Amino acid sequence: AFGFVAVEWAKSDLAGAARWAGNIDDVGLRSSVLRRISQEIEGHGDASSSLAWARFLADSPEAMEHAATISRLWARGDARGAFAWAVQLPEEAERMASVVAIASITVESDPEATRNWLTQFPTGGLRDEAVSATARTLAQRDPAAAVRWLSMIDNIGVREASVRSIGALWMQKDAPRATQWIKEASISDTTKAYLLGGKRP
Fold it and tell me: Contact, 106 vs 114, CB < 8 A?
């Protein structure tokens, strides 16, 4: 009931719903209500309401619990601001989830800018995972472009797993082009055989 009220309220008065939800004393209930509003805004909100809600959540005690959601919503209205917020998060798990969440949004509208932003990260786990996840998102509509991202991944295991995932998708969409790339790519013979043999990761 609380969640229903919050969602309906947020449709016409997001600021009022935010104040009401933020004042719920029960921590579990408050978190649940905030999540319901977030889901509604992600599904139906515009860039302005997404940004307003993201900033509200970012200032709430539940910010870390909702970090990835905050990042996705924030990125819809202010990608630069979202990135700035995400990279300063103190916990590595939340920081990585947030970076991946933002990149998965921005890559849809501006893949090149997203790629350039990710290259600013120092090499290591965060960048590898963010590049891998973002490339897989891009691969849903352009696997040929997505595979060009994989050279940014330093960890061999992460890179090979990404190649298998994206390569398999590309084989389904355009087998001749995918086959040519797989044969010429600087990937392991095992992964080449895996993909050309028609297996799936």
Answer: yes
